[in-house]
């Protein structure tokens, strides 16, 4: 009985999240062909007159999720609809529920960085794969107190994080290492703020002297007099926004997953070729009106880090897994190679689609 009650609570939370997002679209009709595997030599089904719903779960707010830029471009620019899909972004209340939503077909895919909760959920649920990713470079900037002007000034100071073992902890430690500060031996400790607004407030109150922020927020905060250590994206591959899907959905909705990825290829091309449109969407979705911040965000998410072929870096994903194992040594996690399936992305990349999009 307790187990059934827990399942009912999870289901209720998922329904609530989807209802709030206004995205409770009906699944594809049962009569629609859904082959278990891609037909030999197929280039995808013919687009239908009426776009079919395709729901993309997300786990972060737009203000801190600039990696969603190509999806915004694809939705507002019509690339997904040209593939016969009505793509909607569905905010999910917690990372723990994200893959449950995918496994239960409440969403078709989840787009999110590989945090510890997501990785643990992938193991607990099983039958989950990563079929791609749009960004594989470090997207955070290290913002510090005004009197911190060099990495040496951070020695003996405190950083501000979401929680130990969290994605933000991983990001903050990486940012510190990239400027030459050892996060384990050279800091006095860490302040904790459960959300971005509280972490920024801690920085302003002096409760900590360093915080990891993505653009455009990092640019806006730096304008207030804080030190920005600059673009830190050069370096080892970073686990960007992965596209997670259940194997059941991958099999049963294969034609629509293919359409979704074709639309994403086109969205990426539009993002790169139409910066004015992309920046307009950045402003609309982030609800931030700072030209410098929006320019920095576009340079990072629309040009520098955006992959023409949305493949997930195996090395980057393995780094996330290694960090998760350091934070929770007893958590059973697979190797990155076991989670990634680039079969469809690679087939599209070699189909002539790239030549068509970038001619």
General description of the model:
Helices cover 45% and strands 13% of the residues. It is built from 16 helices and ten strands. The strands form two sheets. It has a five-stranded mixed beta sheet, sandwiched between helices. Helix 6 (167-178) links the parallel strand 6 (158-161) and strand 7. Helix 11 (275-286) packs across helix 12. The longest helix is centred in the C-terminal third of the chain and has 20 residues, at 254-273.
Give the SSE layout.
Blueprint: H1 2-20, E1 52-58, H2 69-77, H3 79-82, E2 85-91, H4 95-103, E3 109-112, H5 116-125, E4 128-133, E5 141-144, E6 158-161, H6 167-178, E7 189-192, H7 196-205, E8 210-213, H8 217-222, E9 227-228, E10 242-246, H9 247-252, H10 254-273, H11 275-286, H12 291-304, H13 314-327, H14 336-339, H15 343-349, H16 353-357
Parallel strand pairs: 1-2, 1-3, 6-7, 6-8
Antiparallel strand pairs: 3-10, 4-10, 5-8, 5-9
Helix pairs in contact: 2-10, 2-11, 4-5, 11-12
Compact description:
The protein is an alpha/beta fold and 359 residues long. It contains 16 helices and 10 strands.
């Amino acid at each position: 009985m307790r187990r059934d009650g827990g399942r009912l609570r999870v289901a209720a939370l998922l329904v609530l999240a989807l209802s709030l997002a206004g995205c409770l679209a009906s699944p594809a009709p049962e009569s629609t062909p859904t082959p278990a595997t891609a037909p030999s030599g197929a280039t995808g089904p013919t687009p239908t007159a009426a776009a079919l719903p395709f729901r993309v779960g997300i786990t972060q707010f737009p203000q801190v999720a600039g990696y969603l830029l190509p999806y915004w471009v694809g939705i507002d620019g019509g690339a997904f609809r040209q593939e016969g899909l009505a793509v909607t972004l569905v905010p999910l209340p917690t990372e723990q529920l994200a893959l449950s939503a995918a496994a239960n077909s409440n969403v078709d895919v989840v787009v999110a960085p590989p945090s510890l909760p997501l990785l643990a959920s992938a193991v607990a649920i099983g039958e989950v794969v990563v079929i791609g990713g749009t960004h594989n470079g470090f997207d955070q900037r290290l913002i510090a107190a005004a009197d911190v002007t060099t990495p040496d000034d951070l020695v003996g100071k405190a950083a501000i994080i979401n929680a130990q073992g969290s994605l933000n902890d991983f990001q903050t430690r990486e940012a510190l290492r990239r400027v030459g500060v050892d996060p384990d031996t050279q800091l006095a400790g860490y302040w904790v703020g459960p959300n971005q607004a509280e972490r920024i407030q801690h920085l302003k109150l002096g409760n900590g002297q360093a915080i990891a922020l993505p653009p455009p927020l990092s640019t806006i905060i730096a304008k207030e007099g804080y030190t920005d250590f600059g673009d830190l994206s050069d370096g080892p591959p970073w686990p960007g926004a992965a596209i997670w899907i259940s194997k059941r959905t991958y099999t049963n909705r294969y034609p629509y997953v293919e359409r979704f990825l074709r639309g994403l290829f086109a969205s990426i091309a539009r993002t790169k070729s139409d910066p004015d449109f992309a920046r307009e969407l950045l402003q609309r979705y982030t609800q931030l009106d700072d030209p410098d911040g929006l320019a920095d965000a576009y340079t990072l998410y629309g040009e520098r880090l955006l992959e023409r072929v949305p493949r997930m870096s195996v090395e980057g994903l393995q780094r996330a897994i290694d960090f998760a194992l350091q934070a929770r040594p007893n958590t059973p996690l697979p190797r990155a190679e076991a989670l990634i399936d680039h079969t469809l992305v690679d087939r599209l990349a070699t189909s002539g689609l790239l030549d068509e999009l970038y001619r």
